[in-house]
Amino acid sequence: MIPEIFELAGRLPVRRLGYGTAQLTGPGYWGPRGEARDAVAVLRRAVERGVTLIDTADNYGPSIAEELVAEALYPYPPGLVIATKGGVVRTGPDAWHIEGRPERLRAMCEASLRRLRLDTIDLYQLHRLAPDVPMAEQLGALDELRREGKIRHIGLDSVTAEQLAVARELTDIASVQNRYNLTDRASEPLLKLCEAHGIAFLPWFPLGNGSLTTDRAGTDIATAHGVSADIAAAHGVSPGQIALAWLLHRSPVLCPTPGTGSLAHLEENLDAAAVRLSEEDMSRLDALS
User: 279-286 and 226-235 are packed helices; what angle lies between their axes, rounded to 10 degrees?
Assistant: First the structure.
């Protein structure tokens, strides 16, 4: 039996298959994707389906994704964990800049609190480590916000295992977010470190930015490997569902938060939690690295 629940920082339970909000914004994470009512419907359906981890960021839009989360879900139901990120400033589609000065991180966090209509952010993740600001100063700013009750737990995005080890000496780290999926496992050393210390690993691009999926009609949309398609056919599911199920089986600390602006794709993604892969399936999929 694969575990359905992960306890962030050992005390905040979430269902491991969550929902990410990046796809609620337009190309390059800029502007709206479509009508706000469609995004609201997707967010509400995710929670109706039992999602308890919503992953967003202040620069998705920018601001748009956080505002949609509040519009759709506030007042938040008990047990719903909202994770957001700060430390990146967008100036246009696919144009972004790392910002790690303590005063700017504070301003970003407080702006996210206002948009999300929260007093405390359950999980606040540093979207990127700024190379021009000492890590101790960046994490120190987040620690100060935590002491003030504005952040409950701290996470990091796009770090190495070595950086996580240093960060853990400075403060408690509840989560990391790195790119990791069926065919991209460069962050394997980081995953092992997370397993050793009970740190949540929220893999971004869990579906390879679409390369590991196929549509309902069966048309290939760049499925990375025939093996995953064969296993999907044997289970009567899509290759995308196999890619998500593989993550859930791969490690108990992996908590994928696939995003979509489509209700149909949302249902398909969440149904992946019910897929049970055999040892033979896992062996074949593990070999695809």
Answer: 160
Q: Residue 17: which residues within 8 A CB-CB, separation 6 or more? A: 51, 244, 248, 255, 256, 257, 258, 269, 270, 272, 273
d(CA 268, CA 265): 5
Q: Residues 245-257: pLDDT tens digits?
A: 999 999 999 999 9
Which tens digit of pLDDT belongs to each residue from 69-106?
Answer: 999 999 999 999 999 999 999 999 989 999 999 999 99
Question: Cβ(210)–Cβ(63) under 8 Å?
Answer: no
**Length of the chain (residues):** 289
Cβ contacts of residue 145 below 8 Å, gap of 6+?
A: 105, 106, 109, 124, 151
pLDDT at 222: 42
Among residues of the chain, what percentage have pLDDT more than 70?
96
Give start and end residues of each alpha helix (H) in the chain.
Answer: 36-48, 64-73, 102-116, 135-147, 161-170, 188-197, 226-235, 239-250, 263-271, 279-286
pLDDT at position 160? 98
State if pTM tops 0.90: yes
Residue pair 211/229 in contact (Cβ under 8 Å)? The answer is no
Q: Quick one: which of 128, 123, 194 has its CA closest to 165?
A: 194
DSSP 3-state assignment of 186? coil
Residue with tokens 């800029």: 30
Q: Which residues are catalytic?
A: 60
pLDDT above 80 for 206? yes
Considering just the CA atoms, what is the radius of gyration of the chain in Å?
18
